[in-house]
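Obj: model holo form, ligand = iron/sulfur cluster.
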Amino acid sequence: MIMARRLTAFLFSMFFAAAVHAADNSPVPHLDIGKGGQCVEPDHTLMRKTHMNLLKHQRDETMRKGIRGQKYSLAECVECHAGQKTNSVLGSNEAFCQGCHAYAAVKLDCFECHANKRKVTAEASK
Amino acid sequence: MSTASFSRNESRYFYALAALGLFVVFLGYLGMHNMEEHGHIVSGMNNKVVWGLPHVFAIFMVVAASGVLNIGSIGTVFGQTVYKSRTPLAGIMAIGLLAGGLAVLMLDLGRPDRIIIAATYFNPTSVFAWNIFLYSGFFGLAVVYLWTSMEKRMYAWTKPVGLAMFAWRVILTSGTGLIFAFLVVRQAYASALLPPMFIVLSFAWGMAVFLLAQAAMYTWNDKVIDPAIQKRMKNLLGLFVVSSLYLVAAYHMTNLYFAKQTAFEMFILRDGGIYPLLFWGGYVLIGSILPMALVYLPGMGGTKSIVTASSLVVIGSFAFLYVLIIGGQAFPLSIFPGYEVSSSFGDGAIARYIPSLPEVQLGMGGLAIAYLITLIGARIFKTMPHDVAVVATKNPD
Amino acid sequence: MNETNLDRRDFLAKSSVGLAGLAIAPGMLLYDLAHGRPLGEAASNKVRWGMLIDNNKCESGCTDCVTACNTENGLSGGTKPTDSQWIRKVQLKDNFTGRISSLPMMCQHCEHPPCVDVCPTQASFKRADGIVLVDKHTCIGCRYCVMACPYQARSFVHEVLTDQKPEVPRGKGTVESCTLCVHRIDKGETTACAEACAKAGHNAILFGDLNDPESAIAKRIRAVTSTQIRADLGLNTGVRYEGI
Ligand code: SF4
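Output (holo structure tokens):
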């Protein structure tokens, strides 16, 4: 009986310790939003929820029909949101795309093909 | 041997065999993982030989799956009782082989994670897309077929379903042949003979794998097969092997007849190094002539020679597919007829291909899937053929 | 852009003997047409982009078009059998006459492309203006199109790629080929290979709209014999050759 109580106490303390630790080191991502500024959609919640749909719709228009220069462009996302120092939306859990996707545990497939770096640096680095 | 000790042994066998199968599947998984992570660079494939060993395995399994059901068809469609009692085993093997073949085909894709796209962005003009449709239909029908042949209440339906299955099977195998036959620009494949050739080959390969499985089952269950039945089945195997050899010969003869194809035929049949070797030594000698001898020569045709003959047919089929699939790609496309060409991309040159370990793993993994499904299915559904007044225990105590 | 334009004027000037003054006008017109499509507009089937390659002008040792393509599209330039090559120089030797020549070979942008027919997912497709492309979002990497292409124009990406060009996304496990520099065409520019060839002074590659009777390429095709490679297949290629 005593053992059981001790065990319970121990487990509880562990639990609290973990919780406090978590509060310190909050898992909510701290993102480097890059240049930031005015987004193509002012509503952040909308953007968080639907950016993939917006991008997907436009990707088909651009890829299949050749309609360019529209509002939602992945290259423009990268242009604004690539990290200030890294110039990339990937690379760490602070990076704009990777950070949030790691947090939400959603596979990020765009950058297997698309450039994850700001264009200027891609050119300048040559 | 008492029943109790037999069944204990039997289940020990079963778990050992299942563990072996699982282990090979695991090896296959490792191979696939390797290829997914690093890309096809770890395979032997390249931009000239884009379909490699996995396709040899996969197409073997898909074609054999269709052929193995032939045994069921003989039973249900053509009303042969001996074959009827073998329908369940044939059905399970067909499902297993198709599952194994498709697994290999899918896992060899550049983006296997996107396989669902193949269903959502269906292209009606693509033979590949038709095949996806044909394969799923085959699965469904095979399951229904199994059900009708094992469930007493459903017996009445066996015949119509069997007929549907038979038709579907012929179309499916033709479809597999068409995958190649539609590649009109490739000297190797632009032939209307490919679909019928694949159908006949499927009979032979299906019979061979079935005879192997059947022999294994009788051994595990400590029974011997009625020699009369065995004789009929081995004669059928012989017949299928002879007819496929005939169609393969016809295919090469017609190719030789078309002047454009002569160079390619010379490559495959005479000058191509490994390819003629595999064709004559692997397919013709090991895969056709030796099995024929084992089946037909006087004094041959016992269980041992049938098992050997069937294994040789399977080996020969791999040699055949290797020559067709890889040899067909190794020979350069004729882009500029009448010119001698060369380039950094291998124009005009014979392409090199050396299979790599992950490819072998993937292919063997697929075979192991087929094997596991057959093994487990056969045990659960008790598909041991019951031949009336035939089955005698080997060593009655 | 400017070079090409010069090239076109240059060419027109040469072909319409003594009418140099007039030639500039169609040249300008061409420029306007190429620029004609506003950013937000879809590619139209009134246009059919194509190239005419002059085998006689193509210099045997020169690989400027290949280099330009690699740079433009971010290809490594490697020539291992597993490396992508969107354009390659093919050396030809006539079996009868022994004449030696060379030409650049790339996706021929067929009107009836076999790759599009066989692709199970419609990832291979032809844009309204005749450019044959691979939609890498839907390509599953089955390589059936590579098997079906009569020109060996397609490559499969065998390795993980990094540092792709922002305008030319490409990645492991998908198939790719010459895009006719679609990202440049959509800006009203010419292809990288044509530009490089002109810069090198060979002017062997003429790019333009085959459907526009006034374009330099349409005029040239009317005036000289040009060939489609493997014309027997009836694919009606957008890339044509003269002097083979
Ligand atoms: S490799 Fe991609 S583009 Fe080519 S046929 Fe397969 S899915 Fe289509």
